[in-house]
Batch of 3 targets.
Target 1
Amino acid sequence: MSDYQQMDVPEFNVKKILPILLVGLVVFFAFLSLKKIDGGQGGVLFKANGGIDTEQTYVEGWTFIAPWNKLHIYNVRQQEVMEDMEVLSQNGLEISLKASAWYQPKFTDLAKLHQEKGENYLNDVVKPSILSATRSVIGRYTPEEIYSTKKNAIENEIFDATKKILDKQYIQLNRVLVNDITLPETIKAAIESKLRQEQESLEYEFKLQKAQKEAQKVKIEAEGKAEANRILNASLTANILKEKGIEATLELSKSPNTKVVVVGGKDGMPLILGNN
């Protein structure tokens, strides 16, 4: 008999271990397939056997995605991009400006944006569109208009021109702000000098108009007084003057200081003789 005793080897029961393996695989694939989309995000599904799913944009929350497919996550909140640009004015002068844009991808068109533009759409689409629109708009204005009176109009025109481009690219533009406009110092000084001269000219014109109005007012008042005197002189006949004089004398005669009233004085007017 051998010095080694025969050891019993446990029989490997495939039927018992198989269910455990299957459950483990299911849990493993379920873990791989469970994807979370946070608030303010949207998902685009790429199917291994069919490409981009352009019929659906995945909303925030948990969703099951087959491990062989891929879910691309996008920020769909409003975002801001700020650009420093060098552009040319109407007369060819270089203008430096800083513009910012508020934008966001169109949620329902997120799959088309991913398919046609890609995840780098900010650099590939948004920024070039802002630059192109800004160059086009600034090129219609002179430095004087850009520096002084047209800032709001320029903002609105850049917004309209940029929006017209981005609407076709599945991107929503909400606002464009021109934050800073810088002209060459010589041009800026010349414009400021011209504006001061225009302001002084306007002030002088205002003072001149005011003086003319005052002179016109004095003239009208003088003409009115002259006309009133003419009418009064024409109405005061000798008999009326005598009658008014008699009425005034009689009133004065009622004064306690009056002593004697003599009728028949100079020009037929009454005379009043007092104590003296």
Target 2
Amino acid sequence: MYVGTLSFDLLLGDVRSLKEKRSVVRPIVAELQRKFAVSVAEVDHMDLYRRTVIGLAVVSGDTGHLTDVLDRCERLVAGRPEVELLSVRRRLHGDDD
């Protein structure tokens, strides 16, 4: 069994309130869940309205599949015009960890 995680540090565009922030973050989280069947949530900077960290986890029996899913998730978030991707942190955990 292998577990892969991604952590996206995002700067949000023209957002002036936490309500507007939710309207940007929720669709990204929902699309990742729907398209890739991953576990995903906003995990940091909940009190700041122009920054957020989205965390994502995937479990698979095959590292190739795991890497493919993580790559596609990263491309989806990087391609969103309403956010600027500041950094991505990727971790892979296997049975030996």
Target 3
Amino acid sequence: MKRDRQYSPNPAPVAIAADVCCYTQPELGERWWQRQAGRQPQLACVLGFTDTGLRAGISAAGATPAARRLTAIADAEFLINGPQPQPRYPLPPLTAGASPVLISRAVVAGLTLPVHLFNAGLPQPPSVPAIDLGGQPARCLTTGQALPHATVRQLFQQGLAWGDRLAQPNRYLLIAECVVGGTTTALALLTALGIDAAGLVSSSHPHCNHAQKWAVVQQGLTAAGWSEASKHGPWAAVAAVGDPMQIVVAGMAIAASRTRDVLLAGGTQMLAVYALMQAIAQTEASAFWPLERVVVGTTRWVTEDPTGGAVELARRLETVPLLATRLSFADSDYAALRAYEQGFVKEGVGAGGCAIAAHRADWDQARLLKAVAAIAAQMSSASKPRLKKL
């Protein structure tokens, strides 16, 4: 990994609303924001899995490998059902913090958003209704053979088809993801596409484990017979070192953006998807998509992470507007939520994008905090793990 990287100075974020900033391409970002006036999104959440997420220490989205195997399934259940006395799959215990799905659920419930769950490749089906795309979990990227090429192509076609179906009048499409270990496969995909992303992706850890991620990526590239300096096509890159969510969301966003605006709800994982969309459009003329219709939306915990480089990564992709909610949990009554201010968790299950959607629907930060606190209170009284107050 290239150490002591000297980032060029980041321009100051541009406030496009009271609680939303744009960090790159502010003119495109502000025009996108203005077009959503009076609109609400529908939410598509694409669930996937990679054995990369089972590696010791690679992710904090579940305290043990066994817990991380079920994280996406538990998050999906919570997103749809909210806090329940006896969930089939309780949210896994974390080293610190609470699942970002609390934020997403608060917005989904408060705005009564339509939600579509997609199983791009999980170890077992979710406990709530989900559309099975016929994918499979990815092998650890260190194999250099994460997914079969045929599966990658098939998942892309599924993404295209569903992107067309979900592009509804008077709504924008908010696409979320849940893949444990996904920032590491994001780094691998970006590198395979020829983008210098070492040291720039995020992590659910308070201090990003860049060295571990880079060592894993190097092992995968070597197993695939590639070097870190080489550049590969999108299909080969996903098949070698990617995960099933990436190619589905790329296809979904490409198709939907031809007629509707799209918010890729996530941090560096969605920046990797954006880069994949760019690569696909360069490879196949039929995959053209309008740049002005797609933005990436995340949290300030990602964009202002002192151990990450999401803003610099977005700048290297050149055309992407990177938006972030200014949501803060500094004054929350719940220690698990205040942990976000220490760098834990940061993002996931579309939390940042959902918060941005709430702001676009005229929720100020106080209202959003109240809604998330209400979900936390329900969770504390109804289910395990309980969230403790001060």
